[in-house]
Specification:
Length: 240
């Protein structure tokens, strides 16, 4: 079965907790699932680069850019940003390891901000419409246009702009009008994201499932880890 024909498995923010990531994925063999990571695999936990490599190498998998990846690449490019990056959970040994691994750097700079699925599900890191700030005009090919702009910024020192967009708050739960407009502009019927931990036992659904948050606080090292957060709050099949 081709990767595009497989059922979709969503992985929310991992933040360096590779042990819980392995446990969460154990019921979902890579051959049987199209796995999509929603970004923020790095920071807080001790194995951020290990999580990146695992996600990159897992069969039938795709990885979105998160604000913590943008901040890490910013620190890699500009040493004056290392202190800030550490203040948001960056691990210096991970930065040193990424610096030595140029193929991983290039792969990371090629990550998209948005993925659209055939069923008109839109996948992104944060539950916000500020991705629009990256483009000068809204056209019919908005998703690929935004992704191209992200790639350009990652190749030309544009990490500050990406950090600004990707670190914005999740707003879709409380602003349904903006959610509806974002879905209309992107030609989507629902949007799936992570970024800010919720308090549910399973991914949290808003507005009759038009917005779904898959960040259940998986990483035990994250400052907002919810004690006893079940793995199923962050990792699970995408269902209707």
């Amino acid at each position: 079965m081709a990767g595009g024909d497989l059922p979709v498995l969503i992985v929310g923010d991992v933040h360096g907790d590779i042990e819980r990531l392995f446990a969460a994925l154990k019921p979902y063999p890579a051959d049987d699932w199209r796995t999509i990571f929603l970004g923020d695999l790095v920071d807080y936990g001790a194995f951020g680069v290990g999580c990146l490599r695992y996600a990159r190498d897992r069969q039938n998998s795709e990885v979105l850019l998160g604000n913590h990846e943008a901040a890490m690449l910013w620190a890699l490019r500009d040493a004056t940003r290392i202190g800030f990056w550490i203040s948001i959970g960056g691990q210096r040994h991970d930065l040193d390891e990424l610096r030595r691994d140029e193929p991983l750097q290039q792969w990371l700079r090629g990550r998209p901000a948005l993925i659209g699925l055939p069923d008109r599900t839109l996948l992104q890191h944060c539950g916000n419409d500020r991705y629009l700030d990256l483009v000068s005009a809204v056209g019919p090919d908005l998703v690929p246009t935004i992704n191209q702009r992200v790639r350009d910024l990652l190749e030309t020192g544009g990490e500050p702009a990406l950090w600004d967009v990707l670190s914005g708050p999740n707003i879709f739960a409380t602003q349904p009008a903006r959610l509806d407009r974002w879905l209309e502009l992107t030609g989507s019927r629902r949007v799936v994201f992570g970024h800010t931990p919720h308090r549910g036992a399973t991914p949290l659904r808003y507005h009759d499932g038009k917005a779904i948050n898959f960040d259940g606080g998986l990483s035990r090292a994250h400052r907002m880890h919810l004690r006893g957060s079940p793995l199923a709050a962050s990792v699970g099949p995408l269902t209707d």
